[in-house]
Write a structure and sequence with these properties.
- A hairpin with a 5-residue loop joins β5 (188-190) and β6 (196-198).
- This protein folds into two domains: 1-38; 46-316, Lysozyme-like (3-Layer(aba) Sandwich).
- Helix content is 25%, strand content 12%.
- The strands form three sheets. Strands 1-2-6-5-10-4-11 form a seven-stranded mixed β-sheet. A two-stranded antiparallel sheet has the order 3-7. The protein has a two-stranded antiparallel sheet with strand order 8-9.
- The termini are far apart.
- The protein is globular.
- It is an alpha/beta fold.
- α5 crosses α7.
Length: 318
């Protein structure tokens, strides 16, 4: 009888101890969850307009394909006939589901005009590939800056050049980089033959322009999202890289032979499907504040705009 009482007593003590441990663990989990929600480094903005290419028919949802830093890059998928009408969706399209939303953040101010493309646009169908970057090389778009101020910048498009062959650039983007000073990426790249390569989902934040400011009609725009790093335009930018021609590889010359006709047309085709106006299309050289970026070299902006205007209606030009 005494043995049973003693055993029961120890069992009660053991169950109470287990209950305390579980309570502490659950409390810690809830605390960490609250910290994650309030931390601007991990906040996800559901207000950023969706530039998502129409890739559902050729690959799985990038939100799940890029779910962890240890996930392997998705296999490259190629097709010769993408759907040009939906490669970049308009602001009227439904946004993809987001994990969290900051109720205090304001919606991004974006043009409400529907995208109107032309017969010339519909007649041009570039090849495209999907080559997802490793998750260490991109992040979330924040709803607030490091000071807790809501972010409401209009989107901009920043043009770059690769300074290396397309294959080398994709290999770099698909390689994990834990060093924040090494991480880099574009949302999309245009190869020399005009192929459009989708690298990062547009609702994500590409690391395309560190220490950068956009000077436009609304004044100087930049967002500080990291307490130890300079502010940048990355939180409201869509980054597009042009593959550098052979004459521009492995050198820092101010000019090179220039980009191909196919690159200009594919770049215009891509951007024609967005509502981003001309005055918010810029270059890495223009937004850079480090004094080190000169790309895209030898880019003919007038030539590009002429093709862009032939691909989309006047409502998107200004």
């Amino acid at each position: 009888m005494r043995f049973r009482v003693k055993t029961t007593g120890w069992l009660v003590v053991f169950l109470v101890f287990v209950g305390l441990i579980l309570g502490l663990l659950l409390g810690k989990a809830e605390f960490l969850q609250d910290r994650t929600t309030l931390n601007p480094e991990t906040a996800i903005s559901s207000q950023y307009p969706d530039f998502q290419p129409d890739i559902k028919t050729v690959t799985s949802n990038p939100q799940t394909a890029l779910s962890s830093q240890n996930s392997k890059p998705q296999p490259e998928v190629k097709t010769a006939t993408p759907n040009p009408q939906t490669a970049l969706s308009s602001p009227n399209s439904k946004p993809q589901p987001q994990q969290k939303k900051n109720p205090k953040s304001k919606a991004q101010k974006t043009p409400n005009n529907p995208v109107k493309t032309t017969a010339a646009f519909r007649a041009y169908r570039p090849r495209y590939e999907i080559s997802w970057a490793n998750p260490t090389n991109f992040g979330e778009r924040f709803t607030t800056d490091v000071y807790g101020t809501p972010i409401n910048n209009q989107p901009i498009i920043v043009l770059h050049e690769t300074a290396a062959p397309a294959s080398s650039v994709l290999n770099f983007f698909q390689t994990p980089h834990d060093d924040e000073n090494v991480q880099a990426s574009y949302h999309t790249m245009i190869t020399l033959d005009g192929t459009v390569v989708y690298i990062i989902p547009p609702e994500k934040r590409a690391f395309g322009a560190a220490n950068s400011v956009f000077d436009g009609p609304l004044g100087s725009e930049t967002v500080k999202t990291h307490p130890q790093l300079p502010p940048s335009v990355n939180n409201f930018a869509y980054h597009v890289g042009l593959e550098t021609p052979p004459s521009g590889l492995e050198n820092h010359e101010q000019t090179h032979s220039g980009y191909t006709e196919a690159q200009y047309r594919s770049l215009a085709w891509l951007i024609a499907q967005s509502n981003v106006p001309d005055e918010r299309i810029t270059t890495h050289r223009t937004v850079d504040r480090s004094g080190q970026r000169i790309d895209p070299r030898s880019f003919d902006f007038n030539k590009f705009l002429n093709v862009l205007h032939s691909f989309r209606g006047a409502s998107q030009i200004n």
